[in-house]
Fold each of these.
Amino acid sequence: MSKPSRPGIYGTPPPSLAPPLSNPAQFSPLMPGAEALEMQGEATLPQMVMLAPSGTIERRYAIALALRALVPGAALTALAPNDKGGARLAGELAAFGCTVASASRRHHRICTAPRPRTITGLDEALAEGAPRLIATLGLWSQPGIFSWDRIDTGSALLLEQLPSLSGSGADFGCGIGVLARAALASPGVRRLTLIDIDRRAIDAARRNLDGPRTEFLWADLRGSAAMLSGLDFILMNPPFHDGGAEDKALGQMFIRRAAEALRAGGTCWLTANRHLPYEGAMKPLFSQMSLRLEAKGYKVYEAVK
Ligand SMILES: C[S@@+](CC[C@H](N)C(=O)[O-])C[C@H]1O[C@@H](n2cnc3c(N)ncnc32)[C@H](O)[C@@H]1O
């Protein structure tokens, strides 16, 4: 368990809406290198400002962790856009036994509450948001991770097309490891690197697929994939949302990173919503590109560098 002292911040609350913090410790699982709120000692933090997640279970879990970590009486400021959980924040905090002051600004609800001495419903919220085995998938997962309790349609279509693989590869934006598990079913796969920006996804993927052939990286692929080169294959269902807004540039960046990391002749398997403009990004970077499947609103590509 970590020590008290610094105030905590969760995500990137707009500075114009949140109180300024001096040298805060970051706790968002979506920011590689951040501290884990789960590991923070009870009643140790002097203050917390949280851009609350939009998913209800995930938000209640993060608020419960934040309240547990705060010293009784220390202030929690939780804010969210009105249409992404903000409208429910005050009620959710009150249900934890908080006395809430709430304000509305620029389509956000901003709630401040001192940490109550007793947090009502703490254990239930922590249990509801905790990692668990999803029996239907045979995989560990957690609310908040992409498609956390079912296989995404695009991923399922890519799985249908995937041939036997060999050599060294990577799963870019691995989530809980749905695509990686299929790759590892090929005995010819010597090494597989799973990368995701979400610590919870990496933790779940490690629990699901840890072994002598796998390595796990909690990293932002917008930074660099320079640690990877000469790969035989890459699998990806690229993200197309960044903080809730559609972001085609993110998927295009994944494609550039894949081209950098593959050897000449290496293959990128990609599945994406068919309206996303990825063909144009792939064409100049790959020598061959085949549309393997178009179904249910998705396209699955095999692109050879
Ligand atoms: C569409 S999901 C696919 C997940 C998984 N491969 C599957 O098929 O279920 C995209 C994944 O990319 C991750 N991601 C988003 N932005 C990222 C970034 N900048 N760097 C690395 N991973 C990222 C997300 O956390 C998410 O797990």
Amino acid sequence: MGDLIRRNICPNCGGTNLELDCLYQYGLIYKINKDGKVSKKYRKQDYGTMDCAYIHCCDCGWGSPDADCGNDSEGYLLMDKDWFKED
Ligand SMILES: [Zn+2]
């Protein structure tokens, strides 16, 4: 895991048409019928964030290789500094 930096350009194509995909957890909760079968009806339970997010570039299709990104307390997009290293 590298250092996180404020950056809003794609490391692959330099474009700025980026999306942040934040993963959340949901449960589908099924009642058990009197005959012992699991009901087809369910209700959804929101278990909140997984603290896991990916960045996606809408221009070239690049996706962040891991979930080491997100936003800081001021709302700026954070990316792994290592994604911008030229080797
Ligand atoms: Zn791109």
Amino acid sequence: MNKVVFCQASTDLIRPDNPCLDYYRQMYPKNDGYHMGEHFMEVPTWIAVISGMLPDEHYEKSLHVITDVQETIKYFHEQDEMTIVMFSVLEVNKRIVQEVIKDIPQAVMCGGYVHPDEVSDYAIWCDEVTDLIKYLPHVQVDAPPNYNLFKGWMKSIPRITLSEGCLHNCAFCTISRELHEYTYDQVYAQAMSFQGLEFELVYVNDKTYGQANNNLWLNSLFSVIREYNPAFQGFIVQTTVPMASMMLEAWIDMEVIRYIEVGVEVVDTEYLKRMRKPYNLKQLDKLMNKIRRYDIGFIPNIIFGLPDHDYKSTLHWLWWNADQISFINPYVLCQYEESKGQMFEGGGVNDTNENVVDKSWLSAEDINRTDYAMKQAFYMTGGE
Ligand SMILES: C[S@@+](CC[C@H](N)C(=O)[O-])C[C@H]1O[C@@H](n2cnc3c(N)ncnc32)[C@H](O)[C@@H]1O
Ligand code: SF4
């Protein structure tokens, strides 16, 4: 039997003192169906995907949560050296992964969203999960995800993907502009793979829900999931302001969408243009007037960390619409090599770190204003 350990760093270790995490911890319990796990904000989908590709009859699989790097290194020194240890490496956890992998005796495999050089001295790098087939036996690339490692101990919001990509071109965004739709069999298999997990909501991973032709499958997927999980309430979708505005009535009629997340980002015409956001403030007003009429959760994404900006118009908008807002998704602007456009001169060490406000394009005054605006936004939308 081959042994694989999936390693995931606890959110508290990745984001120590991050005010957004505190805010989410306050807001999730106030919103029906949302659950914040002890270690993760959501079930790590990459583990379920790879776990599905490694058949149970050939692989003994386990999960290790990193809460303390030295404890983790000690743990692996006590484990079978023939075990394979896997990580998903992101900008925000790469230092933790680097520290662990240089000191453990097992073979390490990594994938994720950093440059492979960040870990390649100590690990095999996979560009895609399907690369596993090059290194491991019995890999089934088309198998559905397997959530067994998360069943029975954590409440969650699993993710379902109907399509990948987004047709828009926002400057900060890294999502491919090619829209790829999944087949019904692929989506159905994902819906069935959640069976046994404890959840009330499912997050639709499509980047702009409504663009793909298969978006109406949510109707039948709702019935599929409800059949085995009577506690299931419905879906959370993310989309753009104009798409939400255009489709809202139709989505309300479907009766399976409980929350809508939209990229409001900043309520400022000039910055929306610089971001190449595909909406204007009139469309946002129209959407809010519609949202007001229906019983549906509304979650605007807000991007902080813009220079020479006081966020007054955004804070005013949040304050004015607070009764319609379930909570906000706060982001700090990051600029990646793969971003579709460059908004500012970059190159700072923190420019790709979503947990750090101190970006190369922000002055000391901008950073103070960002901290203040974030606190105000949290407070206006129900945080402390
Ligand atoms: C994938 S988008 C989905 C929303 C929808 N497509 C829209 O743009 O209206 C999710 C959110 O991630 C945030 N985001 C994406 N890239 C970012 C970046 N480079 N820096 C900060 N926030 C980012 C934005 O707030 C964006 O609305
Ligand atoms: S931010 Fe949203 S709308 Fe803009 S390109 Fe990315 S996914 Fe598409």
Amino acid sequence: MENKQYKEISLFGLINISLIGTTSLNFKNIKKFILTNISKQLFSNIDIIYLYDLKDSETKAYYDSGMIVINLPLIKDDKDFIKTLLHELIHSQLDVIKNSNTIEMVIQEYLRKRGKVLNKLLTYNNSDPKFNSNYANLEYDQEFESYLKDKITYQIVYPVSHIYFPSPYAISSIDEYLCIGFEIYLLENKSWLEEFCPELYKLIENTIGGI
Ligand SMILES: [Zn+2]
């Protein structure tokens, strides 16, 4: 158990993780994992990573102009920390990733699947106009996301979507589809991605060496 209130962990001698608060996360292990498994290039847009208690926020983490903020109380364990950090690192590289010459194929794959899932959920939405106008939306829409998460509930969305999307949250926008895709590719189940998200898988394979 680590009890210090403030701690700095240096990564690659360049980026600091600043920890404010107490945590049982094992940063020795986390650092070892990052240095061995995550490309230094993925940190190229990051100046600082803050890890602290965001107080009453449901936000687990976010990336904003060179900074990643991770909400300490919402992190379950070392593995969850690494997953969360990687997710935000991918957000920081989205400009490069979306520049890929196969991005259009991924967008089509995403929209095709989004349409399929929303069609299957039609029985739950009672013809809500907000829901119906959202078929071709690529951008994150908070109202739509809480519709899926809280009104229809992920419990219902998951079984309907799990052969199309790596998680219900990946339905929420093309950015999340990409970020969660990279996360699955790098940390979890490459072959699942290859089978169920072939265009996304191809884009990741073609991009991963360059970021
Ligand atoms: Zn995200």
